[in-house]
Amino acid sequence: MVVPSDDGKTPRDYTGPGAGAPPLGGELDKLAANISLGRSASPTAAPWPENRHRQAGLERARQETGHMMERDYRTALIAGAPSQLARELALWLGGAGMQVHVAARAPEELEPYLVRARDSGARLLPVELDTTRVEEARERVLALDEACGGLDLVVAAGTYEETSARDFPWERARQLIETNVTGTVGLLSAVLPRMLERGHGHLVGISSLAAYRGLAGRSAYSGSKAFVSNFMESLRADLRDTGVRVTCIYPGHLRNHHAVQGRSEPFTLDEKDAAARMGRAILQGKARYAMPWQAATFMRMLQVLPGSLFDTIARRMH
């Protein structure tokens, strides 16, 4: 593949991170050799028109957020579980003018999203990263932060797993906790000192409406998301006046996920729509954002119910 050099004029062969994406510069090319940043879906993709796309993306983001964007974000990392929601969020942020690094345990899983990104002009780069392998993941995140000149936004996604206490699946619960709890803390705490040194940055944790109260059939999931919520709240209190912003997102039921499970839930959200809502909340600098509002209101009501009444309702919700 031939792409422009850093001066934008002289063609040169490109074999760096993402075979279908233009180079990010020598430092990231070196990083690719060390940490396997992954491969793009299309080796024939045209060079990404960085300045033109970035300006168009920024203008679109300003319009979608009601011109309430708190900061100018350039680079982002989305890591955690390989969920459709996280990858739709990556596409939305890429369309808002960011260079988005998307983590996956197997980068080839990202190929459909890389094709969509290429077709829309968004800049997505795959990163081979497993947040449950905490020490290795932390090293790779720090290397990526240095190579791209500093990550402005880091999003810790998570995973969903039902766990009934009547037949508790310990191994699945352990994997869920390693992803949602250990992975989130390991990822965000790795990049936090760098953000504090720079005096700016944005950490985002993906919690869930299930964090508001424990629900039947979701013991490990609700517990892990309650941890994420409290962790992000404490981070926000600790980081006040440092320039590092903290956001916690509380999504409700997602349509495609429950379609796979063969269930129908009220107030479900399409993943693409949910990602757009999340993206707007992040760029607006919201401390917390729960969606959809109907389900969020219901779960907040459950928080203030007497224990005996809540127990009766919770048993009927599974």
From TrEMBL:
<comment type="similarity">
    <text>Belongs to the short-chain dehydrogenases/reductases (SDR) family.</text>
</comment>
<dbReference type="InterPro" id="IPR036291">
    <property type="entry name" value="NAD(P)-bd_dom_sf"/>
</dbReference>
<dbReference type="GO" id="GO:0016491">
    <property type="term" value="F:oxidoreductase activity"/>
</dbReference>
<dbReference type="InterPro" id="IPR020904">
    <property type="entry name" value="Sc_DH/Rdtase_CS"/>
</dbReference>
<dbReference type="GO" id="GO:0016020">
    <property type="term" value="C:membrane"/>
</dbReference>
<protein>
    <recommendedName>
        <fullName>Short-subunit dehydrogenase</fullName>
    </recommendedName>
</protein>
<feature type="region of interest" description="Disordered">
    <location>
        <begin position="1"/>
        <end position="27"/>
    </location>
</feature>
<dbReference type="Pfam" id="PF00106">
    <property type="entry name" value="adh_short"/>
</dbReference>
<feature type="compositionally biased region" description="Basic and acidic residues">
    <location>
        <begin position="1"/>
        <end position="12"/>
    </location>
</feature>
<dbReference type="InterPro" id="IPR002347">
    <property type="entry name" value="SDR_fam"/>
</dbReference>
<keyword id="KW-0560">Oxidoreductase</keyword>
